[in-house]
Amino acid sequence: MQDRFLELMNVSKKFGQTLAVDNVSLTMPEGEFLTLLGPSGCGKTTTLRMVAGFVTPTNGNIFIKGQRVNDRPPYLRNTGMVFQNYALFPHMTVYKNIAYGLKIRSHSEQTIKEKVRQALDLVRLPGIEERYPKQLSGGQQQRVALSRALVIEPDVLLLDEPLSNLDLKLRQQMRLEIKAIQKRVGITTIYVTHDQSEALTMSDRLAVMNNGKVVQVGIPTEVYEEPKTRFVADFIGEANLLEGTISRSDDRSVEVSVDGRVLFAPPEEKLKEDENVRICVRPERIQIYKSPNSCATGERNALRGTIEEVVYVGSNVRYQVRVGKSKIFVDKQVTSLSTLCAVGDEVVVAWSDVNTILLPAS
User: Fold this and answer.
1) Which of 52, 56, 110, 261 has the most other CB atoms within 10 Å of its CB?
2) Which residues contact 35 (CB under 8 A, 6 or more apart)?
3) CA geometry: angle 202, 11, 42, nearest 5 deg
4) Least confident of 25-29, 73-77, 160-164, 292-296
5) Taking a C-beta distance cutoff of 8 angstroms, is the pair 142, 133 a contact?
6) What pTM does this model have?
7) To 10 degrees, what angle do helices 168-185 and 109-122 make?
């Protein structure tokens, strides 16, 4: 296995005066599933298309298996691409769609027939060779597009938001299908999405992008539990962000003054006393208690407030709690309807020091 199977070194792309990708550097080992995650316009699709060869970098270099590929056209890079709209040829049968790349590579008819059969078996769609794309469901079209990309046995598989056109349940099913196929084949994969849950579910690592830059790279648990910036904390999942000032700091804990209250966080060497910071707490890490007198929570971070909004979504409920000038969101699993709080209830919200993330204010 190669540690630097795919590498982007200081890659940038300008369209006129617009800097779409700004000095991106990434290294992928062979067989990794890396997701480029970020909002629309952050540069993730442009980065993917530069790897594929559809867009030429303005600066920097791209290497696949140690070979610089900047000047190679797409058909000489041995990458397989699955587009957002699948890009299946409507006038061709499933067989001809999947066989297209093999014919360009001058494989024999017998080899093509066997490889197409294997590709359809891999995505669990045997026996549909003579159907046309219009005769397939969205999920089936997505699988055919995936098998067309895999049948050429590419070095790198590239997927550009391939699930965005599917309904929620099918999307959730296909996340697991794509990940299982990727692991079974062992192919190096770059996946582009703006869907955080998709990225967290499927990836070996995430590269979070914003304004053309990669702002944080890490395994899903690291990026979610230890965001480095307010953008990452707010974009990955949900986050309560409270502005405050460090009033005391030692090797045991950090005390932060927020609206006249003191909140506690784990020790943080990079942040000093009197420094302005943001406290980040995930909604699902917060406990909520109906009576403000029942504050024997065992947590030092405990605040009294009033419920302003209740959003019930079946298995979970989200509370919006007014605490002084701040709004705090709390997500709880519904175990019994009798335990639900209501708008106007006086409550206590509490969380552990270890669930408090400190971020620089800037």
Assistant:
1) 52
2) 190, 191, 192, 193, 198, 199, 202, 203, 205, 206, 207
3) 55
4) 292-296
5) no
6) 0.89
7) 130
Q: How far is CA 71 from each of CA 75, 106, 145, 190, rounded to the nearest angstrom?
A: 12, 23, 26, 20
For 223, the 3-state DSSP assignment is: helix
Q: Would you call 257 helix, strand, or coil by DSSP?
A: strand
pLDDT of residue 294 exceeding 60, the answer is no
Pick the CATH number of 238-360 from 3.40.1000.70, 3.40.640.10, 3.10.450.50, 2.40.50.100: 2.40.50.100
Look up residue 319 and give its two tokens. Answer: 């509370």
Provide the token pair at 235: 């974009």
> What residue spans define the domains of the chain?
6-234, 238-360
DSSP readout, 156-172? EEEEESTTTTS-HHHHH
**Secondary element (H or E) of residue 272:** none
181-217 pLDDT, tens digit per residue, is 999 999 999 999 999 999 999 999 999 999 999 999 9
Q: Which residue has the tokens 């017998």?
A: 110
* Contact call for residues 46 and 160 (beta carbons, < 8 A): no
CA angle 47, 49, 55 (to 5 degrees): 100
CB 350 within 8 A of CB 290: no
Rg (CA), the chain: 25
Joined together, the tokens standing for residue 124 give: 């669990």
Pairing of strands 33-37, 59-64: unpaired
Amino acid at 114: E
Tokens of 141: 């079209």
CB 158 within 8 A of CB 79: yes
- Amino acid identity at 298: G
- Whether 6-234 shares its CATH topology with 238-360 is answered no
The DSSP H or E segment spanning 324 is: none
- Count Cα atoms within 13 angstroms, Cβ side, for 38: 23
| Matching CATH number, 6-234, of 3.40.50.300, 3.40.190.120, 3.90.79.10, 3.30.420.270 | 3.40.50.300
